[in-house]
TrEMBL record:
<dbReference type="InterPro" id="IPR015947">
    <property type="entry name" value="PUA-like_sf"/>
</dbReference>
<protein>
    <recommendedName>
        <fullName>Lon N-terminal domain-containing protein</fullName>
    </recommendedName>
</protein>
<dbReference type="InterPro" id="IPR046336">
    <property type="entry name" value="Lon_prtase_N_sf"/>
</dbReference>
<dbReference type="Pfam" id="PF02190">
    <property type="entry name" value="LON_substr_bdg"/>
</dbReference>
<dbReference type="InterPro" id="IPR003111">
    <property type="entry name" value="Lon_prtase_N"/>
</dbReference>
<feature type="domain" description="Lon N-terminal">
    <location>
        <begin position="2"/>
        <end position="253"/>
    </location>
</feature>
Length: 276
């Protein structure tokens, strides 16, 4: 048996550490907010699960379990501002990832609930075991298991080193990508070539020493499809998530440079976000 949590379907995934402001106006989600506000502000129950809706599917018209992706992220309520019309303006921050086990539809409460299992991150195990996925260990036969503690240490060292290199590579690619998108969105009239805007530069600096936070910032901010973003959310290992983002960013940079156009409205790129 997993935990039961309230659900809030959206058109795109939420990622850990990313700010999500919402305006709550539907009656069922007003009820959700009133239910959450019964929990102590200092407690740990003021959250709901955000799950992405499969593209082109309406949750109300098909079985919710079919309309929703199975991996989501909790949204922890940080600030609430009640509105005169009975709605709410709230600010949430992405918390823990989870997998849907079952979706519950009921008249009371009117919002969706789900049984979920919590998904851990693999950083600790990956680092301790020296995850060798995609790594070439000098002097070791391909696919051969480590034969002694010395080789274990080499594998772990190479794995850590590869993560550092990968992190720098993704940060550089994302910097170029943001600059290209901003330049195209402004008409490319800067004269000095694409440049990184100040807000994104601050965010990148904030996550420069945190590979996991960088991976979630890129997944949230890049102009990717829902399917691409969902695949990144489902990935539990930071190094593999960054490796996927490296491929995606190279692909997107090529498209930007060849087509000379931003694939979606630029304001979607500039949505408020932070890393906590």
């Amino acid at each position: 048996m997993g935990d039961f949590i309230p659900l809030f379907p959206l058109g795109t995934p939420l990622f850990p550490g990313i700010v999500l402001p919402l305006q709550i106006f539907e009656p069922r989600y007003r009820r959700l907010m009133r239910d959450l506000l019964t929990h102590p502000e200092a407690g740990d129950r003021r959250f709901f699960g955000v799950v992405a809706i499969r593209q082109g599917w309406e949750v109300e018209r098909v079985a919710p379990a079919e309309a929703l992706y199975d991996i989501g992220c909790t949204a922890r309520v940080q600030a609430v501002r009640p509105q005169a019309d009975g709605g709410f303006r709230i600010v949430t921050v992405g918390g823990e990832r989870f997998r849907l086990l079952d979706v519950v539809v009921a008249d009371d409460p009117p919002y969706l609930q789900a049984e979920v299992e919590w998904l851990g991150e693999e950083e600790a195990a990956e680092e301790a075991a020296g995850d060798t996925d995609g790594l070439l260990i000098p002097g070791a036969a391909e696919g051969a298991p480590p034969c002694d503690d010395g080789l274990d240490e080499v594998v772990t060292s190479v794995a850590r080193g590869s993560l550092d290199v990968l992190t720098r590579g993704v940060r550089d690619l994302f910097t170029r990508y943001v600059a290209e998108v901003s330049d195209l969105g402004s008409g490319g009239g800067g004269g000095g070539g694409p440049t990184l805007d100040a807000e994104t530069a601050v965010l990148l600096d904030a996550v420069s020493d945190d590979p996991a936070a960088l991976s979630y910032l890129v997944a949230s901010a890049a102009l990717l499809t829902t399917e691409d973003r969902q695949a990144l959310l489902a990935e539990s290992a930071t190094r593999r998530r960054l490796a996927s983002e490296s491929r995606m960013l190279r692909r997107e940079l090529t498209l930007l440079q060849e087509l000379g156009a931003v694939p979606v409205p630029l304001q979607q790129f500039a949505s408020p976000m932070t890393v906590n």
